[in-house]
Amino acid sequence: MNEDTNTFTRLRPRLQGIAYRMLGSAAEAEEVVQDAWLRWHGTEKGRLDSAKAWLVSVTTRLAIDRLRSAKAQREHYVGTWLPEPVMADSPATPEQIVERADDVSVAFLAMLERLAPEARAAFLLREVFDADYGEVADALGKTESACRQIVHRAKVQLQDERPRYVVPRETQLRLLRGFADAATRGEFGALKAMLAEDAQLIGDGGGKVPSFGVPLVGGRRIAQLYLATSLRYRGAVHFEAVTLNGEWGLLRFIDGALESAQAIETDGERIVRIHAQRNPDKLARIAAALGRELAATKLAPGVP
Known about the structure:
alpha+beta, Rna Polymerase Sigma Factor, Chain: A, Nuclear Transport Factor 2, Chain: A, 6 strands, 54% helix, elongated
């Protein structure tokens, strides 16, 4: 492995992290990083002041272009668009746990959809990857002053949407396991007790499976839907707790096949929001990693 390849390999996790947070798709992020590699392979390294700055800039610009195209497509997306969840092992340290949960959670990536592509890039580079404004300016091809304004506006736009709770992982896992157990057994009272009164269920079926066009609000209504699933597929529903995007989440299986990946937010006492990814295209990588099949697409309308 030569020096150029070593340099790219060393920086690849950062490039992948930028691209995934920009696009909310692991597959598209890999394509962007591969495009960056091809450009890196063909450039004259001796003219570069910084390999890291060059690769970050190229990856960011490629991701911006890809996101612009994706946003046009998402305007015609059936139902609510949610990012593709990524299943991974837990981070090694408490600091890494907090960092990853804060900047790559499904809730955080869904929130970033509010931002235009350049604003999303500037915000991520500055607030997540700790780039200075000179680096942000180079990546976006703008002045530092303009980038400061972009980041400021993005922070204002998102300030009411940032996660409000910092919940210990063991507390989150205990709540998730209790919820999964109640959902498996079809215990309506226990389900309702674990959901906040104003809890939200946000689903993404991508037009491939039934889901909700708008968030379902209300702990009682959400509990009824989980009860309905338990009753309809009696004895066939199974949950597994896994790390999704740096936080504990649930995979739901029906007859042993993966049906959904559920990212769950809690306030430490009750569940306040569930992002349920049911689009088979966005579950394929998780199913393949587990060696499991995807559930049949013809489930009952309205099942979360």
